[in-house]
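Q: I'm building a small set of examples for a reading group on sequence design. Run inverse folding on the following structure and report the sequence directly after it, with nothing in between.
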């Protein structure tokens, strides 16, 4: 590792510890030539997950898009930010655990709807109405009817 102060290439690691919830390693280094210390971070290099959109286009996975959709769905609902974060973490774990380089947006959307349905049914209907592009009130009624049937079967 090159020293940022004198550009010498001889540096030694003085201290090493996990950082960022064990997703990277923080290393304190000292230059052998000038004696100054600096910090470096080591992260695992990963291939970005690509999301295949409805129109067939591809874009890099973006957690903030899922978060924005869920936050809009949960607006003025009794759902805490911690519950939203936990739900997004669960969805990401399920998506990334498949170890695929590409995933259809529909698979992510279905996961979101499944989690929202278990968390808050109003938020679920809000999300589903946008995600499934409800065209009229009858579509809303059909979706609510499905919810009622699943509640009755429980």
């Amino acid at each position: 590792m090159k020293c940022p102060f004198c550009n010498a290439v001889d540096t030694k690691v003085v201290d090493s510890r996990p950082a960022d919830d064990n997703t990277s390693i923080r290393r304190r280094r000292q230059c052998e030539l000038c004696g100054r210390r600096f910090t470096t971070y080591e992260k695992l290099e990963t291939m970005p997950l690509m999301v295949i959109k409805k129109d067939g286009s591809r874009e890099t996975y973006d957690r903030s898009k899922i978060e924005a959709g869920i936050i809009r769905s949960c607006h003025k609902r009794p759902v805490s930010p911690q519950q939203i974060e936990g739900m997004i973490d669960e969805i990401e774990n399920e998506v990334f655990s498949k170890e695929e380089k590409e995933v259809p947006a529909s698979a992510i959307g279905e996961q979101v709807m499944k989690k929202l349905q278990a968390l808050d049914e109003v938020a679920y209907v809000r999300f589903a109405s946008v995600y499934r592009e409800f065209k009229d009130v009858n579509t809303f009624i059909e979706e609510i009817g499905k919810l009622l049937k699943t509640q009755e079967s429980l």
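The chain has five helices and six strands.
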